[in-house]
């Protein structure tokens, strides 16, 4: 067996299962889960209809490169969404089977263990807290993850200036997540300017995970993207790719439909890897994805639902926890320190007393540089309908107030 598999940590939800193993929640309260970030809004009818209309495609093998209509629809969406002058659908866009699979596989394409400095392992830089796929991709690629802690005083932005030069010299891949999971933080143009300068100096690839880019709260201020930042700063897409998907934008996580876009040289190598990897997107979902990327009405309706939930729930929870509206995405990142409980104690007791699930922040981070930046935070995924989210928030309020009584 591959010995590198032994370096993988349990997934956060496995840790949560073990935390709850001996807990029996009250039977009289229906379970409300803020734990898993899985979209719960109904799939738009136009996408469901497109899937049905495309079922004839099951009779053919899908092309790894994806169909021309799909690449063209993605390129058109990117240029319109990020105000780019152009994007070559053939060389700068590659459909993938969801951003999760592509985030992992990209590391296998980019990492070169032979190029490590001074015989030390190559480094993959990750935000902390983070999406665990980044860590797994680094470890199974033979690299060493290096975690850059988020800073609450900087709106949970990572302080890349604190990374030593010898670490940058060994870095081959940098994962960024904007809007971030779990904090919802969005990188600024100044952040991107700093990262591009570092990439130019040290030669590493930037993989920008932007799967939450279409869930935000002000229609006039969509989150800045990596390709958009490069264009604004007058540069090309060298050593830069962005990854996105339809899962959150269009409420179709079961389609596993996404894309990678950016540096044509990286995408050429990635296509070669994927041709052997065998991860082509189903022709049925390719056809349905064309319809999804070509329509913004359902996306605006989706955002309106999240806006209603966040503007309802956030003030409720702010009375008992340190929490505020994020920049974007569908998570609340709440500090529970004022309750006197750790994040794991809070999650376990909330489940035991009120049958509500939240995810401890320490499960989403690693101890790095002497601290676990997820400690004393919990992540709440506001993915259910507004009534269920409101009911869950009310239970959390009652739970927190019961702690102060005791």
UniProtKB/TrEMBL annotation:
GO BP terms, alphabetized: lysine biosynthetic process via diaminopimelate
EC annotation?
2.6.1.17
What GO annotations for molecular function exist for this entry? pyridoxal phosphate binding; succinyldiaminopimelate transaminase activity
Keywords in alphabetical order? Aminotransferase, Transferase
InterPro entries per record: Aminotransferase_I/II_large (IPR004839), DapC_beta/gammaproteobac (IPR019878), LL-DAP_aminotransferase (IPR050881), PyrdxlP-dep_Trfase (IPR015424), PyrdxlP-dep_Trfase_major (IPR015421), PyrdxlP-dep_Trfase_small (IPR015422)
Kindly report, in one word, the top-level EC class recorded for this enzyme: transferase
Q: Which residues form the Aminotransferase class I/classII large domain?
A: 32-387
Q: Which cofactor does it need?
A: pyridoxal 5'-phosphate
Key word Calcium present: no
Q: Which PANTHER family match?
A: AMINO ACID AMINOTRANSFERASE, L-GLUTAMINE--4-(METHYLSULFANYL)-2-OXOBUTANOATE AMINOTRANSFERASE
The protein here is known as Succinyldiaminopimelate transaminase
Question: Origin organism of this chain?
Answer: Paraburkholderia sprentiae WSM5005
Q: What is the lineage of its organism?
A: Bacteria, Pseudomonadati, Pseudomonadota, Betaproteobacteria, Burkholderiales
Gene name per UniProt: dapC
């Amino acid at each position: 067996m591959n010995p590198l598999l032994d370096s993988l940590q349990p997934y956060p939800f496995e840790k949560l299962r073990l935390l709850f193993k001996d807990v029996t929640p009250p039977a009289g309260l229906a379970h409300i889960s803020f734990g898993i970030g899985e979209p719960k809004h109904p799939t738009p009818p136009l996408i469901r209809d497109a899937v049905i209309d495309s079922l004839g495609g099951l009779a053919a093998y899908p092309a790894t490169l994806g169909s021309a209509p799909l690449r063209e629809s993605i390129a058109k969406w990117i240029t319109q969404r990020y105000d780019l002058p152009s994007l070559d659908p053939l060389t700068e866009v590659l459909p993938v089977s969801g951003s999760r699979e592509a985030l992992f596989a990209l590391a296998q394409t980019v990492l070169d263990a032979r190029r490590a400095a001074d015989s030390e392992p190559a480094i993959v830089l990750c935000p902390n807290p983070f999406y665990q796929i980044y860590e797994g991709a680094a470890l199974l690629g033979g690299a060493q993850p290096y975690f850059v802690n988020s800073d609450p005083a900087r709106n949970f932005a990572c302080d890349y200036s604190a990374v030593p030069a010898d670490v940058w010299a060994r870095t081959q891949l940098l994962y960024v997540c904007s809007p971030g999971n779990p904090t919802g933080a969005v990188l600024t143009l100044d952040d991107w300017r700093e990262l591009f300068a570092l990439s130019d100096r040290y030669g590493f690839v930037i993989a920008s995970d932007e799967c939450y880019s279409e869930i935000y709260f002000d229609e006039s201020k969509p989150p800045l993207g990596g390709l958009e930042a490069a264009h604004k700063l007058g540069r090309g897409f060298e050593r830069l790719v962005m990854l996105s998907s339809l899962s959150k934008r269009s409420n179709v996580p079961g389609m596993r439909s996404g894309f990678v876009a950016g540096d044509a040289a990286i995408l050429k190598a990635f296509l070669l890897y994927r041709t052997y990897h065998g991860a082509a997107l189903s022709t049925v979902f390719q056809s349905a994805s064309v319809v999804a990327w070509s329509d913004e009405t359902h996306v605006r309706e989706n955002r309106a639902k999240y806006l209603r939930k966040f503007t309802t729930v956030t003030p409720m929870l702010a009375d008992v926890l340190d929490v505020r509206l994020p920049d974007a995405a569908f998570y609340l990142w709440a500090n529970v320190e004022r309750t006197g409980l750790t994040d794991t104690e809070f999650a376990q007791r909330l489940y035991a007393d009120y049958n509500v699930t939240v995810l401890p922040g320490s499960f989403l981070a690693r101890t790095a540089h002497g601290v676990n930046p997820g400690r004393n935070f919990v992540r709440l995924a506001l993915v259910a309908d507004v009534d269920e989210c409101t009911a869950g928030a009310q239970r959390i309020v009652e739970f927190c107030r019961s702690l102060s009584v005791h």
